[in-house]
Every structure is written in structure tokens, then in C-alpha cells.
Amino acid sequence: MSDPWSERAELYRTSAAHASGPDLELVVEWAEGCRTAIDVATGGGHVARRLRDAGLEVVSCDPAPGMQPDVICFAEELPFADASFDLAATRVAAHHFADPAQAARELARVAAKRVVVVDTLYQGDDFERAEKIRDPSHVRNYDEAEWRALLGDAGLEVDEVRIFDHPVELVPWLERTGCEGEEADEARRLLAGAGLLDGGFIGMRRIALRAAH
């Protein structure tokens, strides 16, 4: 039986909100000096593709077979030896992690040089409720202090943080998870109430953190 993420795979592979952006280019910039990398929760494979284009040897992993990762696994249980990769990266996926602290420990464990995390920034409880209505697999977005704590508790020191404005088109955002009808209306209401809707776009922000042992 197919899982929801495998069913959505093509939508994420072709998603303009995921396929490009300054945060994706920053991952490549922060990979400088690395020869090997793991792209954790690869989704549409955009990080793996860009890092390979930059000359790195990359292994992608994801729990959804339909995402066509090199290895099928959860972020909390990476089947690799300690320090297997120069870089461990995850982008726009951690808000789905069931145990972000364990995932951070795993990223730290398999990375010999550095860890890079990019995800949607926490922007208030109404935004979280809208995210959960739109996609029940959403767990939580985190703010900078929470990410610093998660990575710090994993034995990493955060040495750079960037925050990006990343407007996302509302209708494709709803369509990627099949959110429609009353649920879509409620998500719109919550986003509008939070001041995050503007001309058909959601005023999302992303946070990028670079950390090392």
C-alpha cells in the first residue's frame, strides 16, 4: 500500500517552493570543503541534486519510498557509522520529525565536519494550527532559540544562522497535501488572522543553521 508521502512525491519534486531559493544555495555554500554528504529526509531530492552538481558524493535518505531516496530510513535512525559523511544536511523537513532531539543527535553522529539544518521558522500558534490542518503529519516548527538548544544538546556548536523571507503561494501549498473544503477555509482563516496572507501568498520565513562539533 502506498503511503501519503509517496503519493505526494511528484508534487514535491516539482514544487517551486522547494526546488530553488537562497536557502538552498546557502546549503551548497556551507558545504564548501566537504567531499561527502548525507541529505536527510530528502523529499523531492533538491539538496542532493544541488550538492551533486557542486561535486559532492551524496547519499539521500527518506522514510517514503516514493521519494526515491538512496536509503529508506527515518531521520531518528540513520543506518550509518559515526562520522560517515563530512556534511549532514536536512532542508524543509524537520517540522515532520517525531523526535527532533534524536534526529539532531543522529545528524551530529554521522557528520564528521558539520551539520546544516534549514526549516520553516516558527511564526506563532495560529500558523502552527494552520500547518497541522493542512497536513496532519506536521509536528512543529521551531524558532532560533529552540534550534540552538536542539543542536547544542546534540554536542554541536552553532556558528552561523540566517533567516530568509520565503513567501509561498497559498493554493499550491494546500494542493500538495490535498487540503480542501472546510479545512482549507480554516487554514486560510488562521493564516489571515496571523497576518501571514498577502495577495495569495503566505509570508513564511525559513531559518538556516550551520553547526560543527
Short précis:
With 213 residues, this protein is an alpha/beta fold. It is built from nine helices and ten strands. The mean pLDDT is 95.
Protein traits:
single chain, 213 residues, alpha/beta, Rossmann fold, seven-stranded mixed beta sheet, 9 helices, 10 strands
Describe the structure.
With 213 residues, this protein is α/β, with parallel strands linked by helices. The protein has a single domain, classed as 3-Layer(aba) Sandwich (Rossmann fold), CATH 3.40.50.150. Helix content is 38%, strand content 25%. It has nine helices and ten strands. The strands form two sheets. A seven-stranded mixed β-sheet has the order 3-2-1-4-5-10-6, sandwiched between helices. A hairpin with a 2-residue loop joins β8 and β9. α3 packs across α4 and α6 runs antiparallel to α9. The longest helix has 13 residues. It is globular and about 45 Å long. The chain starts with a helix and ends with a strand.
Q: Can you tell me the CATH topology?
A: Rossmann fold
SSE-based structural type: alpha/beta
Number of strand elements? 10
Number of domains: 1
Tell me the β content: 15-25%
Estimated helix fraction: 25-40%
H/E element sequence: HHHEHEEEHEHHEEHHEEE
Q: Largest sheet, order of strands side by side?
A: 3-2-1-4-5-10-6
- The average pLDDT value, as a whole number, equals 95
What's the N-to-C terminus distance?
A: 41 Å
Q: What is the CATH architecture annotation?
A: 3-Layer(aba) Sandwich
CATH class: Alpha Beta
**Main beta-sheet strand count, sense and barrel state:** 7 strands, mixed
